[in-house]
Amino acid sequence: MSINFEYYKVFYYVANxxxxxxxxxxxxxxxxxxxxxxxxLEEKLGCRLFLRHTKRVKLTHEGALLYKxxxxxxxxxxxxxxxxxxxxxxxxxxxxxxxxxxxxxYHLLPHLHTFSTLYPNIKIHMTNRTSPECLELLNxxxxxxxxxxxxxxxxxxxxxxxxxxxxxDVFIAxxxxxxxxxxxxDIKDLAAFPLLMLERHSTTRAFFDDFMEDNGVxxxxxxxxxxxxxxxxxxxxxxxxxxxxxxxxQDEIKKGGIFIxxxxxxxxxxxxxxxxxxxxxLSAAAVKFIEILDRNGL
Length: 298
Fold this sequence. Notes:
The chain has helices spanning 5-17, 20-27, 31-45, 61-86, 101-118, 131-140, 187-190, 203-214, 228-236, 250-255, 284-296, and strands spanning 50-53, 56-59, 94-99, 123-128, 145-149, 159-167, 169-174, 184-185, 195-198, 223-225, 241-245, 258-263, 270-277. The mean pLDDT is 91. Strands 8-12-7-11-9-10 form a 6-stranded mixed beta sheet, with helices on both faces. Helices cover 45% and strands 23% of the residues. The chain has 3 domains: 5-83, Winged helix-like DNA-binding domain superfamily/Winged helix DNA-binding domain (Arc Repressor Mutant, subunit A, Orthogonal Bundle); 90-158 and 272-296, Periplasmic binding protein-like II (D-Maltodextrin-Binding Protein, domain 2, 3-Layer(aba) Sandwich); 169-268, Periplasmic binding protein-like II (D-Maltodextrin-Binding Protein, domain 2, 3-Layer(aba) Sandwich), CATH 3.40.190. The protein has 11 helices and 13 strands.
């Protein structure tokens, strides 16, 4: 099937704005030309791509499926153009990074400062999402690379790990449960305590659930949150025990507000990693940022 790529360009703008009139303005063509392009594309594909009700426009199921692929292609083209423009210069441009707010706070802040000092004209665009969501954004080409808690297996074959660091999860408690300090506890016994956990669909939660299942323990968390910092604060005031990465609680341990629970079963270490996309050209700025992470360590 041979289809003019200009039709896909028109489709992208309409799908992105959900407006034929807005798309015509952004493309500098008439609204009738937009409508004709969409009509031709629908005829070529043999399906409707949009539902039109007066001024409202909505993607059909087929349209949404096509948009998912066209959006990815559009992002790849933009990244390629950007890489060509910036390949020999770090005087301008941007670097697009995906990471959770926790990873930004505990791992990225000093590197962001270093990079912005060395390359003040490069715009840093941060997208804060969970690790699985960052990998999905990378797959779509919406970011240049991401820093994530690595799952057992990357969800896409065309992704590579550039830099990694070992991380260790621990169970923590506040002073309310001080009698657990300086003793070894079987994780089966922890089921009797209220547990505070990250929400499902996070890499840490998936790791925790797998670890507990492997040890024959089924726990229903008392509280589920999207913030590690909140988990730590709630643990401090005695609302329950929690499961977090040890790097994130060192300051609180020094202050005496919380402590690490020694558990009988060994918790396997994990990896924090910088992930890139094989088909997504890295800009000069992105390459330099990853070099800083590699040189200075996550």
